[in-house]
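User: Predict the complex.
Assistant: Input components as received:
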Amino acid sequence: DARVTQTPRDKVTEMGQEVTMRCQPILGHNTVFWYRQTMMQGLELLAYFRNRAPLDDSGMPKDRFSAEMPDATLATLKIQPSEPRDSAVYFCASGLGTGGSTDTQYFGPGTRLTVL
Amino acid sequence: GESVGLHLPTLSVQEGDNSIINCAYSNSASDYFIWYKQESGKGPQFIIDIRSNMDKRQGQRVTVLLNKTVKHLSLQIAATQPGDSAVYFCAENLEGYKLSFGAGTTVTVRA
């Protein structure tokens, strides 16, 4: 049963610390998405990768957030320095990247981040 | 800006009854819609999708209806079960890969 995996599942850290979240997309998928979910804003797209290349990071605060794909099996989202307002659940999703609007996104279980 | 929204934030349904979850969208150019189910502590799970050239699509116990005239989307769940308790999100496709998610409807199934 192929699925997206994310680590850690929960992270509690103090303001100013660096946070790194990891995602393993489904094998064979070539699109990766990072989302943030909060009660106030719902699900927001932070970044989008296709074939490991970042194509859209317009939803991401550039000064503190960065997203990379070191290889096809690993996507990372880093926050440095973290702030209390970054507290949220961060989801990674992957897709087959067949193109167009019908590429279903499969979500991972999320990383719940709490910044004190 | 245009966005997807849901008519009701919560829905309580008796086990065995049918559930109907509604969604309004405002982007008339959207050509693809998806329903996701999110259980507590988990990520959104794909349920069913529909393209704008269709009015109805059926899956296992679920049916999605699309009314483009009034920009309305609905998800019908037949014979609702306790395992159907979750938050349901509709999403519309924007700009190719981008999805705009609604606020979500919390469905609670009463035994």
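The first strand of chain B starts at residue 4 and ends at 6.
Let me know if you want any component modeled separately.
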